[in-house]
Design a protein that fits this description.
The chain is mainly alpha-helical. The chain is built from 16 helices and no strands. It has helices at about 5-20, 30, 40-65, 65-100, 105-110, 110-115, 115-125, 135-155, 160-175, 175-190, 205-225, 235-255, 275-295, 305-310, 315-330, 340-385.
């Protein structure tokens, strides 16, 4: 497929924002949720679903529906190998150095693993135990595995039922019904269960809504064109502008937590279960991006570095997690006493490494593609011109 540079640039921007958030520097808090009570993770998850919907819908049209499950499975396996590698790195080198240096930032992150190493290792490889920072790729893997069924159902029977079911799952997550179900299963089982808090911060049944929404939009864009069917009425755009403006000012006036703790209203903005006010904030931003995007695309300068990062999103994402763990192990949590120049060096070095990884990954992909073309050409030449595929 022809790449859409604006999507790559947006994914690159999300990766930079996530890196700023996850690195243990003084820049983490002011750059977290810069556009309101919405983080880069929401945008990255939906953009990933969007790309999956677009790419695999086109694949279904070209190669048939039967090619879709295998394609999703291969992608899920690739992401699983990345997750397994990150877990091994965390459980070995990071854990060893953290214990030797008595680095509380690391020992706190690995508290369950240090208490139950065998159980944590096995359940981690089974995508059940998901320590902090390493809890988003397992969600991607599970979403990839169910996406063939969701996508093919949407393509052939419409997206109304799919989106309705996805919204119901999100609503159930708001009432913590799956936590209650997990506790019931754990109490009724003879086997030792992983504590619910160790399953990961992201609540899968809430966050799947963003993925499914992206999947639907990507599939629609693949069939009808990237801008077809998204002409919002003026009242909706005005409402989105008002909501986005209020949330933006509110977030930067009071910080990332909308109400002083303890306050139950903060649950409405909760990141991990994708609270309703957070979802409204995100949808307002989405409407604005989709409405003004074509206009901005013709006027804003292209940032090649962001496009490069976005094109190599998976290796860049994994590398940023690895570097965040290394920085946490060496420097610990961010403190006001740490000199500013150290935080600047950490950030600059990390972004430099991420760009190098993206550039190298794309170069390797290009060389592999060229090698495949040459191999295919040699096979055709050996068979003779009469065996060449028709144009």
């Amino acid at each position: 497929m022809t790449r859409r540079w604006e999507i790559d640039a947006l994914r690159g921007l999300m990766l930079v924002l996530m890196t700023l958030t996850h690195l243990p520097t003084r820049f983490s808090d002011p750059t977290g949720q810069p556009f309101g009570f919405v983080s880069a993770a929401e945008g990255f998850v939906m953009l990933s679903g969007y790309m999956a919907g677009m790419v695999y819908t086109r694949r279904a049209r070209q190669k048939g529906d039967a090619s879709i499950p295998g394609a999703f499975l291969r992608r899920a396996l690739k992401i699983y190998l990345c997750q397994a590698g990150l877990l091994l790195f965390l459980f070995t080198l990071i854990a060893m150095v953290g214990l030797m240096a008595r680095q509380e930032a690391v020992t706190n992150l690995l508290s369950f693993y240090l208490a139950h190493p065998v159980q944590a290792f096995v359940s981690g490889m089974l995508l059940i135990y998901n320590p902090p920072l390493l809890d988003i790729l397992p969600m991607y893997i599970l979403l990839m595995l169910v996406s063939p069924l969701v996508l093919l159902h949407g393509l052939h029977r419409g997206w109304g039922g799919v989106m309705g079911m996805s919204l119901l799952l999100w609503l159930a997550a708001q009432f913590d019904l799956f936590h209650l179900l997990y506790d019931r299963m754990a109490s009724a089982s003879r086997w030792a269960w992983i504590p619910f808090a160790e399953l990961g911060s992201f609540k899968l049944f809430a966050w799947q809504f963003l993925w499914v929404l992206g999947l639907w939009m990507g599939a629609s864009g693949a069939e009808d064109g990237p801008t077809a069917g998204w002409d919002f009425p003026r009242w909706m755009v005005n409402a989105a502008l008002a909501i986005a403006a209020v949330m933006l000012v509110w977030r930067h006036a009071v910080g990332q937590v909308p109400f002083a703790e303890p306050n139950a209203l903060n649950l409405l903005f909760d990141k991990w279960q994708l609270g309703p006010m957070r979802l409204i904030n995100y949808c307002a931003l989405l409407v604005l991006v989709m409405h003004f995007g074509p206009w901005l695309k013709t006027r804003l300068p292209r940032v090649a570095a962001l496009e490069t990062l976005g094109k190599a999103s998976l290796p860049v994402f994994c590398t940023h997690l690895l570097l965040a763990l290394v920085a946490l192990t060496i420097f610990g949590s961010s403190t006001p006493e740490r000199p500013v120049w150290i935080d600047v060096v950490i950030l600059a070095a990390t972004l430099g490494v991420l760009y190098a990884v993206a550039w190298g990954s794309l170069r390797i992909d290009a060389q592999a593609a060229e090698a495949r073309k040459k191999l295919a050409a040699r096979r055709i030449s050996r068979r003779g011109p009469g065996h060449a595929p028709a144009a």
